Each structure stands twice: as structure tokens, then as C-alpha cells.
Amino acid sequence: MVGITSYGAYIPRLRINRKVISSAMGWFNPGALPGEKATVNHDEDSLTMAAAASIDCLNGLERGKVDGLHFATTTSSYKERQGAGIIATALDLHSDIRTADFTDSLKAGTTALLSACDAIKAGSTKNMIVCTSDCRVARAGSSEEQIYGDGAAALLIGDTNVIATVEGAYSISYDFMGQWRTDSDKFTRGWEDRWIRDEGYIKMLPEAISGLLKKYKLNIKDFAKIVYPCPYPREHAAIGKMLGAEPDQLQDTMLSSVGDTGTACPLMMLVAALEEAKPGDKILVASFGNGSDALFLQVTEEIEKLGERRGIKKHLARRKELDSYEKYVSFSNTLAIEKGRRGEDVGPTQVTTLWRERKSILALKGCKCKRCGTPQYPYQRVCVKPGCGAIDEMEEYSFSDKRGVLFTYTGDNLAFSMNPPEIYGIVNFEGGGRYWFNLTDCELDSLKVGTHVEMSFRRRYIPEGRGIYGYCWKAVPELT
Amino acid sequence: MPEGIKDKVAIIGMGCTKFGERWDTGPDDLIIEAFTECVEDAGIEKKDIEAAWFGTCYDELNVGKSGMPLSYILKLPFLPVTRVENLCATATEALRGACYAVASGAFDIVLALGMDKLKDAGYGGLPHVDMALGGTTRGILTWPIFTAPGAFAMMATKYFAQYGLSPEEGKRTLAKISSKSHHNGTLSPKAHLRREISVEAIMKAPMIAWPLGLFDCCGVSDGASAAIVTRADMAKNFRSDPVYVKALQIAESSGEEMMYTDWDSAHVETTYRAGVKAYQEAGVKNPRKEISMMETHDCFSITELTEYEDLQISPRGRAKEDVDAGFFNLDGQIPNESDGGLKCFGHPVGASGLRMVYEMYKQLQGKAGPRQIKNPKLGLTHNMGGIPLLNIVSVAIVGL
């Protein structure tokens, strides 16, 4: 039976209390939601979050067996350059795999999941990553600014060691224009929210879910958890009631802790449900966006064998409050800050170099000398160990999954930084190897020589004239 | 074992511009200013020069590539001009080329000139260091976003941790180094920054890259410097007090500091290695006793502190004791940065090496005015280009 064989998630470390937003923009739009929301750091985006969730999902598993990757988002960095391809490179997956982006609708996550199941059922692939993320940027003072949050989920789909089988699905498709972005819009536009609520969520979610129940002759009471997004808390509960579900069957939307993560939302909720699931549980999942996909899963005994993931729970527990609205809007480039000549004066990325060195740059791949056993980064043809110097006796060696120790560091106020000071240091890797990296998701005064770090895929810079989003790996204090 | 350069070549003339933010002065003016002083000092004319070595680092900000700019700016009569660049060791590299040319017997009178015009960059600090270090190569795409102060600050962080200095103790030691140089700068008419700065003021200055504050960093400026070299046996035909070249050494990182785990990030390996070779070449057995004075590369206070140890003047981890004792002050046993150093001159990358030799030359000739050191015999200059992780070091020793 085809289904989920592993799961992972990612929630950015930064949280902004909605009061911080309303105290900045309340003069214009006094409406405020309760709680906080997760927001990307200045060096994160949908690709980096999806990569992080996928790394969590693949923890302890052999990456070489992955033969496909689906990426679902409405906020990919590129219109033409596949996000799934960038993520697959960062994950160091083989090149003979099937990759695709599922996009343009908030239901794209569930569609990506169903397509992966179909591919495996058809025998075309065996182990596929389905990762999804969104970091939608809202206009200052809009209600979306209060609602939207950022996050990612990843599922591994296969037909052996399945922890939750995908038993069936029912989809509906409507060109319902509740909200939209054209090919040149940075911000989402929406029609009246009462209409989206009443004609959208309240009609379409029950239609899809009822269709699923009817098609497979199921009773809503059969489900341990029912997963569906809805950024209106009262209506979220009302939909459950309409379906005949008890309140404790409804999976929390994380609206007051993470926010509405768009395409990622239903699958992040599913990961949260799987974290609590027991063998035998049935879980119902439905998405919303230009229609809906509804599907249901059956949790198996295998779930107890899956090693611990950071998932939703650990990422929710790791948090740092962003107490400045000005930083929040600067990080998303809603407020264009003065970068100065030094900020502009960065060498152009040569795409030919990026292509040749993609494993070093995007996958943090180095090498290990077969003669002396020294790991080194980036890939060297001549061994760096004093006294060895073997030429062309290297095998590939991965650093992205290695822990390291901070050997020394600084916080640089002269370097251009979106969040000064720019922190960087030398990392000595467990198992050998040394290099220097930026540090992120940390404060200068929390670091010391000897701090344990791990590596994280991040955005290096945004295009501005070059048209290239640069990606790199940075060190972050180890998430315990 | 090669013979080395010792006492084969002599410096018979030098020139050095005023260093600073020379907004009204272009690269051509800087070259002409240093050259004019240099040939007058040597008592020769342009037609006597047989070849030239021209050093500039940020050529894209000033005159562009090749040796041609030196030739057409000075209207040299179809001479061979070699353009050299080796980051902060650029000017010393130009001197090395000129000295080797003379020592080989190919030429008898050769010009070495270094120049950089950094204040056309449009912002403070060194311009785009990442580009200077291969901005579009795979190296840089895997490096962090950094600046020179930050790259050297990492060495201070580790030095403090390794030798158990609290940030306060460490910063105070570094502040004493900068304060000493600022004092010397007040006695140095060609320096860019010429005021006393107290240890307390240095410690309280705005942070540039933790733990280095504003006064732990040298300035960025415009300048040029030049030397005329000739065969040692001809030198006294030009002047009674030529200065002889005793050693010229270069060491470049092998990559192991950055990629192998032995280097401790609390010293600069190339400085140590180039120092060992230079002492050998000059026949110096005990540097702490034999070297009279130094101009080491004080781009940052921490660089100078580690140089005391790497050049074997102070024992490992104990340079602080010598700093506290005033060992390197103008009236100390081995004055360092008697002219104020990079700290006060600023650092036009391609000119600094010859500016340092200029100070040693004037001191050896007894022409250093209010900052004159008593009876110096051997002067050492040192440049370090790049960052502690990956760099070039030059060490030159000159003497009577």
C-alpha cells in the first residue's frame, strides 16, 4: 500500500506577536488577531524552508533511494528555474530523479502528494519527497499581514515501511477567485473576506470532505483527526460542526502560533497530527484553494519505528521573538532600506561557475582523501593535509549533515548585512574538516568559542540587478 | 642552501607621498609625487633608470592593469616595466623584483614604485575585499559575507580564548598597541591621522567587528612610495649613506589554515615562516636582540599583537607582557611603527610596503626628526595581505 513513510517540518525561528504589527499599523487598520506568527529570517525563503523540512524528513534515511521530488508553493524564488531542482541539489539527491513544482494554488500541496502517490502506484517511482512551503508577503496594514505565516512540511512517499497509507481521495476544482496574484504582483489581492469565507471555505471544504466520505462510505466519526485549513477560527469550528465532527477531532490550524502558511498549511497540520497519531488512527486531510483535495490516511504500526523528527513540535518550541515591525518589513523588502555602496558592490554570480561548483555551493559537498582520510571542503583535487598532498585521490564527502564546533567568530558591523552585525566564524566539523561560514539564527552575545553548530541551507542574497538568488549554507547553533 | 640577497643590493633613494584622503589628487599625481622625491633623493635623473617594477593592487579603482600607466605617467623612455600585485605585499613585491633584477646583473639602476588610490571607492573601509580575493570563483561563493576587520576580529576572539584573556583584558592590550602608534603618528608629518588617542578612548570606540573597535582598525587612504636600487658595490658612488638589503622573503598560505584543523587562529603561520627565512637570509640569530626597529603590518591591532610572537620577538602567548612593558614604544627596545604605521598612515594597499621601508631608510640615515630612534642597525618591515585564514606575508630586512 502506498503512503507516507516519513515526515518532517520546518518553522522559522522568528515569531512576531501580532500586537507588534497592530501597534505599528493599527492607526490604519485597527483589526488584530490574537497570538503570534512565524516569519522568515532575512536569509530564508520558501526554497530554504522546504529544504529544511525535507532534511528533517530524511533524517536517518538513505537519500540515495529518493527517486523523485515534488515541491508545492505559490512563492518560489523563480518563475523559470525549478524550485524542486534547487531543493534536490541542496539535498544532494541523485540526478536521475523526477522533479516537479506544483504551484499557483494553495491546494498545490495535497495535489503534489496525490501525484506522488499515483506515480508510485503506477510503478514509475518508488520513494518521493513531497515538500511544501510558503512565505507570502502581505501589504503593510492589510489583514493578510496579520494572518499569513511562514513554514514548511515534507513527506516521504513510498510503498514499504509505510507509516500512514493513503487510502483514497476526492478532489474538486473551481475557478474561485477568492484571492489571487498576477504574474507581476508581489502582494496577494482578495475579494471581500465575507464572500471568501461563506462561498469559499464554508461551501467547498464540506463539499470535498462529504464527497470523500460518500465515495469511500466513511463516517466522519471514524477519524482521529480531521485536518483542513481555515484562517477564520469561528468558521473553522463551524465547518467541523457542519460535518458532524466533535471539536477534539479537529486538528489545530496553528493560526495563533504560526499563521496561515498557505500551500504548506494542510500538510504542516498533517505532520502535527502524525506526531500524535497511534497505529490504527484514521486521518482526514483537505486543502483549500481554487477547489479542494480531500484524502484520508490510515496510520500503521510502522509509525512507532520512525525515529524522532523535529517536525512541528520541536520547531514550535524553538522561537525567538522579533520585536521590531520595522525589521519585519525590511526583511521582506516591503520597506526598502538603504544598502549603501558596500551593499550593492557584490561580485556577479557567474552561472557557469555556479553550475560547475553546484555540489560545493548548493549541497555543501566536499571530499575525503582516500590516502590520509582527511575530510575537506570545498572539493580539493590536491589534499590539504600537510605532508599528504595526494592528487586526485578523493571521494565525495558530505558536510551538510555534519555537526561542528565554532572555532572562532565575529560580528561584523562593516559588512553589509540585512541584520547587523553580520556574524561569521570558523567551523571545525566532527569527523574532520574545517571551513568558515556565516552564522544565522543566533545573536552575537549567545556565541562562544566551542558553541556546537549545524548547517542550514540559506539565501545568500537577493537579485537586484543580477536576477539571481544566491544560496549557500550557513552555520546555526545546534537545535537541541 | 642559496646565498640569498644579503648585501647585494642597496637602496640609494626613496620617496613617499603624504598619505590621506587626497580627494584633490589622482593616481597620476601620487605617482609623480613619490617619484620626484625619490629621484631627487638618489641624485639621479630619469634617464639613468634602466627598468621599473610597478605595484598597485586595486588597479580597477585607479590606473588599470599592466606596467603601462607608470611608463606613460612618468614618460619613461620605452623602459621595461613590470606590474606586480600581491595584495598588501604588493609594494614589497615590487622592491623584491627590482632587487632581484639588480642582483642578477641584468640592470644596475632600477625603480620600484607602489601606489594605490582607495578613496575613489565611494565608501569607507577596503573596497570589495571579496572581489580582490576572487569574487566570482567558487572560493568566494562558499565564503561568508565578510570584511577585512571581521576576518581579523576572528583571530582576536580566538587569541583571547586561547590565552585566557577576558574581553576587557584583551581589548586593553590591543588598545595599548593602537595608542602607541597614534602617539608616533603625531610626530610623522606624512601620516594621515595625527592625534593622540588614549587607551580608554580606544576601548570605548564604536564596535566595527567584535571585539575590534574603530581604533583597532587602520585607516584607508591614498598614497605612493618609491625606491631606487642599485648594486651594493656601486651604492657609495651615489651617496655616503645607502641602505643595504639584508633579506626579502615571501610566504603564502597553503590552504591548510582554512581547510585543515591544525592552525589555531591565534597566530599567522605565514608571518612565522617568512620571518624564519628572512632571519636566516639576513644572518639574524636572535631577533629580539638584533633587530633595532620594525614596521609590521598593523592593519588591525590584533595583527600587530600576533606579529610580535610570529616574528619571534615575544614568546608565544606572552606578547601582552611586552606590550605592557612598552617594549615596542618609540623609546622601547624594539620600536614598532615609529612613523605611526598603517594605523596612522592608512593603507593604500599597493604603497604600504615601500612606505614602511621608507621609514626604516630614514631612521637608518638618522633623518627621522622628532621620532628618530637611537643608532638603529637593522630594520624589519612586514606586510600581510589577505586574511588570517588565507594570506601572503612579506618580510624585508634592511640595514647599514
- Fraction of residues in helix of chain B: 25-40%
> Could you give the order of strands across the largest sheet of chain B?
3-2-4-7-1-8-11-10-9
Question: What oligomerization state is this entry in?
Answer: heterodimer
Please, how many domains of chain B?
A: 2
The number of distinct structural domains of chain A comes to 2
Alpha-carbon distance between the termini of chain B? 24 Å
- CATH second-level architecture of the largest domain in chain B: 3-Layer(aba) Sandwich
Distance from first to last alpha carbon of chain A? 35 Å
Strand element count of chain A? 22
Q: What Rg of chain A do the Cα atoms give?
A: 23 Å
Number of helical segments with 4 or more residues of chain A: 13
- Structural class label of chain A: alpha+beta
Uncertain segments of chain B of ≥5 residues (pLDDT<50)? none
Q: Work out the strand percent of chain A.
A: 25-35%
Annotated CATH architecture of the largest domain in chain A = 3-Layer(aba) Sandwich
CATH superfamily name of the largest domain in chain B?
Thiolase/Chalcone synthase
Question: At the third CATH level, what is the topology name of the largest domain in chain A?
Answer: Peroxisomal Thiolase, Chain A, domain 1
**CATH H-level superfamily title of the largest domain in chain A:** Thiolase/Chalcone synthase
Q: What would the keywords be for this entry?
A:
heterodimer; A: 480 residues; alpha+beta; Peroxisomal Thiolase, Chain A, domain 1; OB fold (Dihydrolipoamide Acetyltransferase, E2P); 9-stranded mixed sheet; 5-stranded antiparallel sheet; B: 400 residues; alpha/beta; 2 domains; two-stranded antiparallel ribbon; 15 helices; 36% helix
